[in-house]
């Protein structure tokens, strides 16, 4: 019985650690704690400049494999994620939950791009 509880708590601790380790999941969790509905990618629909940027990156990812482009995209994604993480942190510090929600929706787009990039880099 003690081992069962230990395993359950260990699992919860690992899940909590993984949630807090990733800026996107951490931000979504903080919104949840404040009773704000989770950020959806549709929260960015009004930002045409942002959506155009995402579309252009997706188009580059759709091109046949080109290492230079992939590295350029990887760097861009990393920089954007770092910028958004700083902006989300500032929004939470100001207690501006709606702004944090919008920024987290943008972070979801970049997380999806990062996943696409990783899949493209893995040889078939």
Can you characterise this structure?
The protein has 124 residues and is an all-alpha fold. The chain has 5 helices and no strands. The longest helix is centred in the middle third of the chain and has 27 residues, at 67-93. The chain is flat and about 55 Å long. It starts with a helix and ends with a helix.
Given helix and strand content, the structural type is: mainly alpha
Task: Give the number of helices.
Answer: 5
Biggest pleated sheet:
none
Rg, rounded, reads 17 Å
Total strand segments: 0
Helical content, roughly? over 70%
What is the averaged pLDDT score?
Answer: 87
Note the beta-strand portion: under 5%
Distance between the termini: 46 Å
The string of secondary-structure elements, in order, is HHHHH
Stretches where pLDDT is under 50 for at least 5 consecutive residues are none
Give the CA-based shape.
flat
Record the SSE blueprint.
Blueprint lengths: L1 H20 L1 H11 L14 H15 L4 H27 L3 H25 L3
Give the structure's gist in a few sentences.
The chain is mostly helical and 124 residues long.
Keywords for this entry:
0% strand, flat, single chain, 124 residues, mainly alpha, 5 helices
């Amino acid at each position: 019985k003690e081992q069962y509880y230990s395993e359950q708590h260990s699992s919860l601790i690992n899940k909590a650690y993984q949630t807090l380790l990733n800026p996107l999941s951490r931000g979504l969790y903080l919104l949840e704690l404040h009773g704000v509905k989770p950020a959806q990618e549709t929260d960015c629909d009004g930002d045409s400049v942002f959506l155009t940027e995402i579309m252009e990156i997706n188009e580059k990812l759709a091109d046949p494999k080109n290492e230079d482009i992939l590295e350029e995209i990887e760097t861009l994604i990393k920089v954007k994620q770092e910028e958004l993480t700083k902006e989300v942190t500032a929004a939470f510090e100001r207690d501006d939950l709606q702004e944090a929600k919008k920024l987290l929706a943008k972070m979801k787009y970049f997380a999806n791009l990062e996943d696409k990039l990783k899949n493209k880099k893995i040889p078939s």
